[in-house]
Amino acid sequence: MKYYVQLMIILLFSLIGELLSNSFRLPVPGSIIGLFCLFLALQFNWIRLRHINDVGQFLLANMTILFLPAAVGIMDKFSVIAPYLLPICLIVFAAIILNIIIIALVVHFIKNHYEGDYPE
């Protein structure tokens, strides 16, 4: 019974996100809004982590299987995607490089401003 309640809490936040996204015609998907609402509820202690921890850990552990329908859909519509394959690959490659650069800059900034020089 505990797992059903935890799943219902997570699904309730997903439903709230979908309702907000659809009623206000937001360009952000409802699932993302639901995750943000769940994050806020956890931060403000409206719900405790123990209320959703077990089901959350299960969903995280089995995340790869949740992406299978999307991957099959992409493979099914490959003929539509094929003409745009080179631009898609270039964008993905550029995004990876940009992420690496931004992460390096952030780490460098944090290391220089928040870590002291400690004698060895």
UniProtKB/TrEMBL annotation:
Keyword Membrane: yes
Compartments (UniProt record): Cell membrane
Pfam families per record: LrgA
Membrane association type: Multi-pass membrane protein
Keywords of the record: Cell membrane, Membrane, Transmembrane, Transmembrane helix
Transmembrane segments: 31-47, 59-78, 84-110
Gene Ontology cellular-component terms listed: plasma membrane
PANTHER family per UniProt: HOLIN-LIKE PROTEIN CIDA, HOLIN-LIKE PROTEIN CIDA-RELATED
Protein name: LrgA family protein
Species in which this protein is naturally found: Streptococcus macacae NCTC 11558
